[in-house]
Specification:
The protein is mainly β. The chain has 1 helix and 35 strands. The strands form 8 sheets. Strands 22, 23, 24, 25, 26 and 27 form a 6-stranded antiparallel β-sheet that branches. The two termini are about 20 Å apart.
């Protein structure tokens, strides 16, 4: 990864004489620090479910609404379109101009909504084994990437893997015949063409999307081969023909699917309690929890680490520089890697957990490989305190606290 000189979100000295848009903090001359009006986010008045999901697609943003269903907007418009039917607000996934939904009922069946024509298609025999919102915004038994949806499905006798291709007018379902052993998470990389199922907290079972449904998948016995046990959370995540996960110790592992090489990342480690791994477009991210290292702050969350899968021991971490108003540069609870791999977005978390929602918004920031760190403001020049950030090729979406609830915010790069 190319190292850059961080670009501060606030100018301290040259703007000391200005008085507009003050957020607090003092420069050397004793005056206030006004913000740079560079990256300005749009904060709407659209209410959404604080514990639901927000998903960014191709010019659309879908979200769990405050009425317990699912809605979406076209980027640039505050006009809300409600999707008819009873669908879970905590299972909303955009792919292109389509939205993948999970029924809110006795069965967790998949439906596909096409925003270009308003059609809603129920996909037969696709009951998701469970929807288990995790503390890291994860859905263990469903994942969506590049017009593809992978689910773990209970067929009456056991749990099987299914792939749903939604690129055409009629979704196409593939059922894999492999008998899975206590599967508890699935993740798909639609670009590289792999599905990884974590079985029995020991086996990484890899399905090649170019192979037939009756293929014998590649299985890596991580416990036996490497002598380590995988942490239950976060679940394994896959991208760029790699699988990233934390061990139960104080290290992060990167498994290469082509040859089974298991790298122990030597950078700052992710110990117990660290949340929210991501891997996409050649980058990976996670939050540090090193005791005594200043990697956690009660108001700002954890320090973010950004790594490169091609050179996994080259990394960038949040600087922790105080930007004014108590904001620490590079700290948060949720992250999203842009599809081009050039920018990482950082925010807090409302999210979901098995015990209920959390309330940890932090300053909305980003790290650019060319420009370093930056902080977002609203139209008044104040920092945006946001949560649950996600991104597509043309929009970044997030939640902003509004009273006891939350409203939708977004940014167009």
């Amino acid at each position: 990864m190319t190292k850059t000189t961080p670009r501060r979100g606030w100018i301290a000295l040259t703007l000391c004489t200005l008085s507009a848009g003050i957020i607090g903090g003092n420069c050397q001359g004793g005056g206030p620090i006004p913000p740079i009006l560079g990256k300005v986010a749009i904060i709407t008045n659209i209410d959404l479910q604080k514990d639901g999901l927000v998903s960014a697609g191709n010019g659309i943003i879908a979200f769990g609404n405050d009425s317990g269903g699912v809605s979406y907007i076209q980027v640039g418009s505050n006009t809300v379109t409600d999707i008819p039917g009873s669908f879970r607000p905590d299972a909303v996934f955009c792919t292109g101009r389509k939205i993948i939904l999970v029924a809110d009922g006795a069965t967790n069946a998949i439906s596909v909504y096409d925003t270009t024509n308003g059609s809603l298609t129920a996909v037969p025999n696709t009951d998701v084994f469970d929807i288990a919102p995790g503390s890291n915004l994860e859905h263990q038994w469903i994942d969506v990437d590049a017009d593809l949806c992978a689910i773990l499905h209970f067929d009456g006798t056991g749990v099987v893997l299914k792939l749903i291709d939604v690129i055409g007018a009629v979704p196409v379902v593939t059922t894999y015949t492999t008998n899975l052993i206590s599967p508890h998470s699935v993740d798909i990389d639609g670009v590289a063409g792999f599905i990884v199922v974590m079985e029995d907290n020991q086996y990484a079972t890899v399905f090649d999307l170019l192979e037939p449904a009756n293929q014998t998948p590649q299985t890596y016995d991580i416990l036996t081969d490497a002598g380590i046990t995988i942490s239950n959370f976060p679940n394994t995540l896959t991208g760029n023909e790699k699988v990233i996960f934390p061990s139960n110790g104080d290290s992060v592992k990167l498994l290469t699917l082509s040859d089974g090489t298991l790298d122990d990342l030597i950078g700052p480690s992710a110990g117990a309690g660290t949340t929210h791994f991501e891997i996409r477009a050649g980058l990976f991210t996670y939050f540090l929890n090193r005791s005594g290292q200043g990697d956690f702050d009660g108001s700002n969350g954890y320090r973010l680490l950004i790594g490169d899968v091609a050179d996994p021991n080259t990394f960038e971490t949040g600087t922790g520089v105080d930007l004014g108003a108590g904001i620490l540069e590079g700290f948060g609870h949720s992250s999203s890697i842009a599809p081009d791999g050039l920018t990482v977005y950082l925010a807090g978390r409302f999210g979901q957990s098995s015990g209920g929602g959390v309330n940890e918004p932090t300053a909305l920031q980003c790290y650019s490989l060319s420009d370093g760190w930056d902080v977002f403001t609203d139209s008044s020049g104040d920092p945006v305190y946001a949560a649950d950030v996600v991104s597509s090729a043309n929009v970044v979406a997030f939640k902003v606290a509004e009273g006891a609830g939350a409203v939708l915010g977004y940014y167009v790069p």
